[in-house]
Amino acid sequence: MIHRSYFAKNNTLIANNTVNTAKNPVTQLFYGKNVTKKCRFTGLSAHTCDGLTGFTMNNDTGFSRFIFELGLDDLIEKYTSCCIPNVNVLSHTLKMTNTSNFDDTLMNDKILVDDTRRATSFTLMLFKAVSGTSWDEGVGYDYLVPDGIFAPEFDLTYSQRPSNWFSATTLASWPIPGTYLNTNTASFQVLATQNFDNGNENISFNSLWLDAEINGIITTPASSADTTYGIAFIPAFENLSGLTEAYSVGFFTRYTQTFFEPFLETTYNDVIDDDRSNFNLGTPNNLFLYAYDHNGTPICFDSLPTVTIEDCNGNTVGTYTASQLTCGVYYINLTISSLPQTAPVYYSDIWSNLSISGVPQPNITNEFIIYDNAFSIGSTAGEPKVYGYSVSGIKEDEKLTNGETRKIFISTRVPYTVEQQVLVDNLQYRLYVTQGTTQVEVIPWTSVNRSFTHNYFLLDTGWMIPNEYYLDIKATSNQQVDIYRKQIKFQVINQL
């Protein structure tokens, strides 16, 4: 499973400044020479700004911080509905796209007001303010306000309304201006750091501390109340003094109006590899049980089922406790090393301890055949298996409403046969969009589910940004990798 959680709100706080830049499509994180010594040109001369609240005309050091709030409702819902049975297997990565990632000429260039130079060789941190408070995003757009005769006299997008460096809301101030004090490590917690060599790299924060933080919110949503997260230069850069230039790096925010919105990517291995149709002697095999209600909605048992394995004579081979993979999907991993009979032979798996909402359910008995063809050892080199593939469950150029979930089937046909279909191992898919001539990967190569009857995967459009998407399929056989590009094209559109 790959899931994206987007920012619910964000803002850029500029040290000792009351400007609100919440709606900016780009956040400019900077350090060095103070670039915030600007005043509105409202008929007053620039020197009258000296000493006004929020302006530090005599301070030569400045920096900014980006704060945000994550929308984790979808992940929380997946956990409460038992589709994520164990948060400890989740891995989280915070990603933001660098604005200079697409143009190397921006590296080390002077690109902003006051000749701010693009930063290189620096370290950013993902932080959590310890003494946080609830805050409002506001509606400001400005990052820097020009002064002098070229300044706009009536700039309707400019706002000093909260949040800003000093205020979290109209009525409340931050416990500490800027959310934390960079000389007091007790006022903030570092969740992850990332070093930037050239300065055009994208943000990709991941760590055990970040995993623990997000997993704690998923299991206990109330724990995130009045907590502020953000991205900033580490204190060693913010506290540099005597610099003659300011150094900045830009990242797209939630208001970018492009595909490059920042997000938290959550990954969890819920791929189904069901070996019931090809259970082999001497190798690990998975046996699955699927539970649905009368509407076809996956359901979860009150506790983990018990699985008893019996041979063809009804003798008990072993008893196991099943594991849950996702909502309505349970399995055991089983290795049978030897048989009293000659393979192939029928065995049974009996699932018990099945209870739904306190109501006991009857035992379920399934069968599987044990083969002895897991390996091919001899003097003949194997040849790749080549199949024909088709995608169903979604139509070419179909328009999907954001929020739909589709079950996408990948049918595999044996060449030169009349629609003879097989189940295939090592089948993968990926999803991407195009930006000009560039492919932007949305879902990297991911294994396709292999159930007892078909290959498939679930396509959840709830977290997908409205755009046109392409689907590729990859099959690997005997070291040969075949990629079938643009098997399907579809669009995700906004709900009205």
Quick synopsis:
The chain is built from 3 helices and 30 strands. It is mainly beta. It folds into 3 domains: 2-267, no CATH class; 279-371, Immunoglobulin-like (Sandwich), CATH 2.60.40; 388-493, Sandwich (Immunoglobulin-like), CATH 2.60.40.
Write the layout of secondary structure elements.
Elements (H helix, E strand, L loop, with lengths): L1 E13 L11 E8 L27 E10 L2 H8 L10 E6 L20 E2 L3 E8 L58 E9 L6 E3 L2 H12 L8 E6 L1 H4 L7 E7 L10 E5 L11 E2 L4 E6 L15 E5 L5 E6 L1 E4 L2 E6 L10 E8 L2 E2 L2 E2 L3 E8 L16 E5 L5 E4 L3 E9 L13 E9 L2 E10 L1 E2 L4 E6 L6 E11 L2 E14 L3
For this entry, give a set of tags.
496 residues, mainly beta, Immunoglobulin-like, 3 domains, 11-stranded mixed beta sheet, 5-stranded mixed beta sheet, 30 strands
User: Distance between termini?
Assistant: 28 Å
Number of domains: 3
Beta-strand portion reads 35-45%
Class of secondary structure makeup: mainly beta
Major sheet: 11 strands, mixed
Proportion of helical residues? under 10%
**Outline type:** elongated
Number of helices: 3
* Assembly annotation: single chain
Could you describe the 3D structure shown?
- This protein has helices spanning 73-80, 208-219, 235-238; strands at 2-14, 26-33, 61-70, 91-96, 117-118, 122-129, 188-196, 203-205, 228-233, 246-252, 263-267, 279-280, 285-290, 306-310, 316-321, 323-326, 329-334, 345-352, 355-356, 359-360, 364-371, 388-392, 398-401, 405-413, 427-435, 438-447, 449-450, 455-460, 467-477, 480-493.
- The protein has 496 residues and is mainly β.
- The protein has three domains: 2-267, no CATH class; 279-371, Macroglobulin (MG2) domain (Immunoglobulin-like, Sandwich); 388-493, Macroglobulin (MG2) domain (Immunoglobulin-like).
- Strands 1, 2, 3, 4, 5, 6, 7, 8, 9, 10 and 11 form an eleven-stranded mixed β-sheet that branches. Strands 12-21-18-14-15 form a five-stranded mixed β-sheet, with no helix packed on it.
- The protein is elongated and about 85 Å long.
- The two termini are 28 Å apart.
